[in-house]
């Protein structure tokens, strides 16, 4: 295993730097938008741009990679990302910022594709599980540590944008200096949305809900924390707690879902997420320590929803359609993620900062009712389960790696497909 990890250490380092930079700039822009006088509604519109770009990148960035190769594509994406970050301080306008966030999302999707395809090629069948676990830890640690980068400077000034740009530029170095040969890119076909919904309504609907929640948290979480009276350091701690909390319960809840009916575990987890969201609303009137603690508990449950619904889909789909299903779920996630921050911002403007978590409560209430109806309509089948796989905060990265892992495993073991 250690031989494999050493061979991809530069790739993992590049990926970690990407997540640190992305975690930093997401929170920074939320705070800076409010400082510049953008309304809550406009801030939500700006933050939604990243997820629009992420969806577009998930669908079309592979074409860039297949045309110019992994190394050149990564260099181009990282350079554009670095420029987009700096451009925020050159022209302060919500329309311009929205466009810059779309560019950033597209580039981020492309860079993650490059890193993950490379990691997947270097992992062997014997080490894939351990490599994937390490990859997920880097996902959450990078996004969480990025929150503390805000403590280096004042969000009202320009220095933090320069630092974020430098982080993205530094992410170029490990990958460009690696001696590993680049893998051949692949572009998975998408399954028709109607067919995907017929296979697993819970999977599609749950992915849309998860996209709305995750994007709202990443886009408007810092605005929520700032408007309830937290300082910049406390905002960083709150956001880091929510993200790192998401890492803590991935495997315990995943193990439960592997042993029991996945839909029942999803139902219980969604109830726990809704209750913990209510606890965050209650904690806004308590001490900062209590608020952060409630945020950690909320993050622990909230970030397990996407991998649960994804695993539910994998339980029902044929193995030779997993890649197409992954691409279809990417669209579902992008739909939810694109509208989540906009809806959250509208509710926060109408109801105050607690509107963010009130929206999350409403989404989970709807998801709970939907799951109950589906449990009543369709009993659990006898088909063997797939193994639970964790997902990162963006909801797409590790899923892409997972499906490519299964795809390569099928090539290695053709007898399994008989």
For the termini, the CA-CA separation is 30 Å
Sheet of most strands: none
Number of domain units: 1
The number of helical segments is 17
CATH architecture: Up-down Bundle
- Global Rg: 20 Å
Question: What is the string of SSEs from the N terminus onward?
Answer: HHHHHHHHHHHHHHHHH
Mean pLDDT: 80
Beta-strand content: under 5%
**Within the CATH hierarchy, at the fold level, what is the topology?**
Growth Hormone, Chain: A
| Structural classification | mainly alpha
* CATH top level label: Mainly Alpha
Q: Find the count of extended strands (DSSP E, 2+ residues).
A: 0
Q: How much helical structure, as a percent, in the residues? A: over 70%
Give the assembly state of these chains. single chain
State the CATH superfamily name: MFS general substrate transporter like domains
Contiguous low-pLDDT stretches (5 residues minimum) are 398-418
* Coarse morphology: globular
Give a written overview of the molecule.
The chain has 418 residues and is an all-alpha fold. It has 17 helices and no strands.
List keywords for this structure.
mainly alpha; disordered C terminus; globular; 418 residues; 17 helices
């Amino acid at each position: 295993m250690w031989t494999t990890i050493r061979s991809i250490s530069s790739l993992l380092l590049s990926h970690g730097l990407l997540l640190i930079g992305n975690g930093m700039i997401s929170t920074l822009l939320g705070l800076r938008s409010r400082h510049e006088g953008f309304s809550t509604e406009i801030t939500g519109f700006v933050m939604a741009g990243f997820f629009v770009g992420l969806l577009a990148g998930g669908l079309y960035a592979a074409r860039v990679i297949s045309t110019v190769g992994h190394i050149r594509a990564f260099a181009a994406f990282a350079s554009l990302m670095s420029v987009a970050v700096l451009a925020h301080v050159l022209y302060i306008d919500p329309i311009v910022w929205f466009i810059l966030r779309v560019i950033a999302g597209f580039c981020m999707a492309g860079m993650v594709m490059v890193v993950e395809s490379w990691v997947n090629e270097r992992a062997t069948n014997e080490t894939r599980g351990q490599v994937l676990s390490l990859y997920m830890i880097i996902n959450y640690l990078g996004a969480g540590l990025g929150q503390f980068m805000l403590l280096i400077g004042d969000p009202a000034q320009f220095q933090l944008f320069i630092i974020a740009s430098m982080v993205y530029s530094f992410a170029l170095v490990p990958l460009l200096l690696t001696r590993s040969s680049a893998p051949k890119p692949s572009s998975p076909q998408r399954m028709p949305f109607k067919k995907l919904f017929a296979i697993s309504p819970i999977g599609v609907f749950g992915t849309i809900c998860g996209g709305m929640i995750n994007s709202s948290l990443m886009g408007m979480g810092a605005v929520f924390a700032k408007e309830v009276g937290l300082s910049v350091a406390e905002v960083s701690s709150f956001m880091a707690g929510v993200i790192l909390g998401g890492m803590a319960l991935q495997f315990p809840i995943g193990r439960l879902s592997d042993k029991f009916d996945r839909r029942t575990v999803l139902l219980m987890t969604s109830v726990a997420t809704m209750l913990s969201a209510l606890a965050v609303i209650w904690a806004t009137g308590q001490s900062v320590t209590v608020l952060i603690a409630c945020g950690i508990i909320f993050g622990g449950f909230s970030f397990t929803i996407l991998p649960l619904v994804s695993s539910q889909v994998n339980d029902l789909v044929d193995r030779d359609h997993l890649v197409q299903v992954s691409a279809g779920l990417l669209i579902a996630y992008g739909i939810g993620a694109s509208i989540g921050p906009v809806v959250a911002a509208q509710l926060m403007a109408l109801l105050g900062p607690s509107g963010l978590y009130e929206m999350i409560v409403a989404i989970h209430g709807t998801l709970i009712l939907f799951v109950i109806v589906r449990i009543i309509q369709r009993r659990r089948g006898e088909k063997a389960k797939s193994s639970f796989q964790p997902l990162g905060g963006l909801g797409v990265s590790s899923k892409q790696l997972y499906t490519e892992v299964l795809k390569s495993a099928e090539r290695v073991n053709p007898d399994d497909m008989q």
